[in-house]
Amino acid sequence: IMLSVAAGGLTLAALGVIYKSWRAQASTYLYLGLVVWVISAVCWSYAQGWEFGVLYALCIPSILVWPFIAFNQTHLPQPKNVPQPRSFDFSRRTVLGNIANYLVVLVVLLVVSVLLTLGLCALLPFSIAGKLATGIVLLPILWGLIVYHYLATAHKIKVVVAYAVLAALCLPILIFFPM
Prior knowledge:
Blueprint: H1 2-24, H2 27-48, H3 50-71, H4 92-123, H5 128-152, H6 156-176
């Protein structure tokens, strides 16, 4: 019980320090807050088991952040020049480009993110259940970051090739370090 109370207090302290880093725009407080948050996650894991500890460490800050958001809410005036929406473009080039992006995101980058996740999880010193749980949490995050990077860059081919090389580097890990 005391470790759970300490973990809750560390979670609140981490939120406060990260909030202070945002208000002061100081990266030192951000790093300190992240360290305190990781320590609170470890405390939650020891107090409640790693399954519930990870759940509490991730969910409690995301729920407790809403009062900070409400406290700092501001209402901006209506903009004077509202941009007009773009018209639809159904040209062959645009449609084929969108189909290609669709296939790259939903097939190629998904396979890349699965291989990266499996390669990273294979190296972790956890039991198979821990590796599976880590993979379940890591896969959508990694896939989202990779897709965001792909869609945000102008050099899409270079990004796909770079991630394909990373995925290819994970293949020997998966072959020689089975889960």
